[in-house]
Amino acid sequence: MSIVVQKYGGSSVADAQKLKRVAERVMQTRASGHDVVVVVSAMGDTTDNLLALAKTISPNPDRRELDMLLSAGERISMALLSMAIRELGGDAISFTGSQSGIITNDRHVDARIIEVRPYRVEDELVRGKIVVVAGYQGVSYRKEITTLGRGGSDTTAVAMAAALGAEWCEICSDVDGVYSADPRVVSQARRIPVLSYEESQELAESGAKVLNAQAVEFAKEKSISIYARATTSPLPGEDPSADGTVVRKHGPRAPGSVIGIASEKEVLMIQSRDVDRLLTVLDDFGVPGKQLHVTGTGSEQDGLTMVVSKENLHQAAKLQIALTTIPVRWNDSAAAVSIIGAGITASNQKVLQGSKALRELDVRCFGIATSSFRVTWLVDRTKVDEVVRLFHPMFVEGPQPAVP
Fold first, then answer.
1. Which long-range contacts link 44-50 to residues 24+ away (Cβ below 8 Å)?
2. Which of 77, 81, 207, 285 has its CB surrounded by the most CB atoms within 10 Å?
3. pTM of the model as a whole
4. In DSSP terms, which residues pair with 306 in a beta bridge?
5. Which of 120, 124, 117 has its CA nearest to residue 85?
6. Pick from 251, 286, 259: which is nearest to 64 by CA?
7. pLDDT band, residue 189 (cuts 50/70/90)
8. Rg for the chain (alpha carbons), in Å?
9. CB 395 within 8 A of CB 261
């Protein structure tokens, strides 16, 4: 039988009733003729609650101990879902990330998967069992428990699908796919039926919450289709893009089309002329940069601007103290708003258009960054939703470029 990997997010397993509904959907998948591996997140707000509990003990919790704590959430979900499947007559077994063969590098809180050795998972599938895997976690080559950062259960699911040669990987959440903007912010946001790997990765890196950027990397490497769907939706039919979003190779759009607007409210801008010392301190704290700009070279360096996501930064106060030994400017009032689409920086038109609109709205812009798939404006955090609502009709709902 072909293998299908399904991932269910925290809102899908938030309580006992929702866990039972997920178990029913898993059993339907099994009955349709597939071997099934299920990856689960922690229940509801469990991870946030555990993190808040840690902060009551220590304002700057040690990253290793955080991993030991936070990885407990997914273990609860996997065991309960396995029990629920068994109550429906299924034969299920649950595994932690380390038991299922998720091997990571030696970073804590935001580790990256370097290898998957799914031997125990494969053995249990051969025995006819449904395998339930704790997402978001793995084990380093030093045998340390690690977690993969926010959205890491997506990465677990796609990496496992790649290792098993799965037919597809289904990412199930409380929304029926990827939208052109956050529907809670933009009422005209549209579900995007098909996305390329590159578009999906840029959306994820820019703050969209439906898919995880590293998960898309694994899918792209192994050419695995990702189906982003609602947990309440039926199983994928002949055209899974009809009621969800399919992520696959090559999107169906003309170059220059904007497919979505993404935003991230919690970012830091750190600026310094002492580039080497700043990068050394950031590395000491395990802080990766989302964007890095260095102007000038050698003795003529003007300085570095680093944009850092606060999402996995759990020692901000300690980092700020460490940076007092270096002349830095620390901006904690910025947020990022990005437009995404293939080839949108082939000309400067969209950069000019967006920047003019910000000036007319009287929104301060701290900086602009681009890639071949993205334009990002760093703006006043209090104005983010306003900017997203401004950009959506301008870039997404408006006329798209003609095919060259």
1. 44/10, 44/11, 44/13, 44/14, 44/15, 45/10, 46/10, 46/73, 46/76, 47/10, 47/73, 47/136
2. 77
3. 0.87
4. 270, 292
5. 124
6. 286
7. very high
8. 22
9. yes
Domain 261-397 classification at class level = alpha beta
| C-alpha–C-alpha distance, residues 160 and 297, integer Å | 43
CB contact set of 36 (below 8 Å; sequence gap of 6+): 3, 4, 5, 6, 26, 29, 30, 130, 131
* pLDDT band with cut points at 50, 70 and 90 for residue 297: low
Residues, the chain, total? 404
pLDDT over 70 percentage in the chain: 96
How many CA atoms within 13 Å lie on the side-chain side of 345? 12
Average pLDDT on 185-206 reads 92
Question: If you search the block for the tokens 């959907």, which residue do you land on?
Answer: 25
| Distance (Å, whole) CA 87 – CA 16 | 13
The residues spanned by each domain of the chain are 3-252, 261-397
Tokens representing residue 79 in the block: 């065991």
Q: Rounded to 5 degrees, what angle do the CA atoms 340, 152, 251 make?
A: 30
